[in-house]
Amino acid sequence: MRYINHRYFIHFCHPTSTFFSIIPFPSSTHNSNPNFPEMGSRRSFLRSWSSPLFLFVVVVALAASSADGSRAPRVPCYFIFGDSLYDSGNNNNLNTSAKVNYSPYGIDLPAGPTGRFSNGQTTADAIAIDLLISFGYAGEILGFKDFIPPFASNPDDRQILVGVNYASGSAGILVESGKQGGDNVDLSQQLRNHELTVSRIVEILGSKVAAFEYLGQCLYICDSGNNDYINNYILPQSTAIRNQYNPDQFAALLITQYSAQIIRLYELGARKVALAGISNIGCTPSLIATLGTNGAPCVNSVNQLVVPFNTRLKSLISQLKLSYPDAKFAYLDSVRVGTLVGAVFRFAAFRIRATSCCQVSTVTGLCLPNTVPCSQRPSYLFWDAFHPTELANQLAAPLFFPAIQRIL
Q1: Residue 356 falls in the annotated catalytic set
Q2: 382 pLDDT exceeds 60?
Q3: DSSP letters along 40-84, please?
Q4: Catalytic option among 11, 83, 84, 223
Q5: Is the Cβ–Cβ distance between 274 and 219 less than 8 Å?
Q6: Listed residue (407, 317, 396) closest to 127, CA to CA
Q7: Cis peptide before 113 (omega within 30 of 0)
Q8: Rounded to an integer, what distance in angstroms lies between the CA atom of residue 257 and that of residue 313?
Q9: Which residues cross the membrane (predicted)?
């Protein structure tokens, strides 16, 4: 299944436009969102053409436009772990408020609501399948032709040889994270689910040796830790854990647990592992509305809170490389990528918005069921009060890919 949302092509690229005319000159007199101030002059805009951001746009667009879609996937299989940023439907049948198998979620997917916490593809999807760059070029990242199925959908033997998505909305590294909203599949349980998949692959391929040789060629990606802060450490009712652990101690607790989980993944055959850091969660509409910013674009105190986690995660990856030389590990810099995605939005459109595209619940921050979302979705960074729009996810994927490519 090749999925390209041509609505984005129309929005950003007139059929007669050249690449260099796609990005409009920003106006110093118009600024629709103080979180993303416009540049002050055309002169400063022209200077920006030599910036790394502009070079990224050129390289990605040229690389994407040259893809013919005929080659085989870069890896034979792709396994996805994490939280709602990657969840593709694993929470649909759980007793939880953290599920989104209803309209308007999935409004830009042919299948409609699937359980993805966005209007369309997640970043994990965009990495896997055909990717639409906002400038109208289509290209491949990993080269898969279909979405990776969620574990909860009971994928068949053919499907699990291509990969499984275990990610679960509200889930974290710690078992208790996110449980105030109901059930979720925490990372340790995701790994137990993966054990079941590995056992099936052993049966399919006839031996553990054959299975582990195959699994060693796959890509494993994990985005965990967000909910250990959003739905645990910074909750108003979590005073006990904040009294027990200062921010650095809490980060150390998470990384200790995360290290054991990633080592378990290695023991199950993983040899190409990409781990995403925590993004600037203080820039989400929910936390901005709840905590306030004192005039800043984001809740800086929350963004600073997660810095020790990302620092320790980078150190963990360095340690894993030394301890397991037969494996490859990559750090996905979510802070940098999120910053660049915001900058691309600023370059590519006259108006951008960092508020939610849909009407959200004041309790969960998720879209209210069966409401009508914004019509200009390519102008929004956030779909609901926590999660990016499809276009933001599709822009993030090629920014993550250079780090992923080094471990393939």
Answers
A1: no
A2: yes
A3: S-HHHHHHHTTSHHHHHHHHHHHHHHT--S-SPPSSS-EEEEEST
A4: 84
A5: yes
A6: 396
A7: no
A8: 11
A9: 49-67
Print burial letters for 216-248: b (CB count within 10 Å at least 16), e (below 16).
Answer: eebbbbbbbbbbbbbbbbbeeebeebeeeeebe
Q: What count of residues does the chain have?
A: 408
> Which helix (H) or strand (E) is 222 found in, with range?
strand 219-223
Q: Count CB neighbours of 372 within 10 A.
A: 10
Distance CA 223, CA 117 (A): 14
Considering 108, 279, 356, 387, which one is annotated as catalytic?
387
**pTM summary value:** 0.84
* pLDDT band (50, 70, 90) for residue 351: low
pLDDT in tens, 184-222: 999 999 999 999 999 999 999 999 999 999 999 999 999
Distance CA 307, CA 225 (A): 12
Average pLDDT over the chain, rounded to an integer: 83
Instruction: Give the integer Cα–Cα distance in Å for 306 and 251.
Output: 8
SS3 category, 352: coil
């080269």: which residue's tokens? 143
Residue 84 annotated as catalytic: yes
DSSP class of residue 244 equals H
What's the CA angle centered on 324, arms 338 and 129, to 5 degrees?
Answer: 40
Q: Which of 186, 223, 228, 384 is catalytic?
A: 384
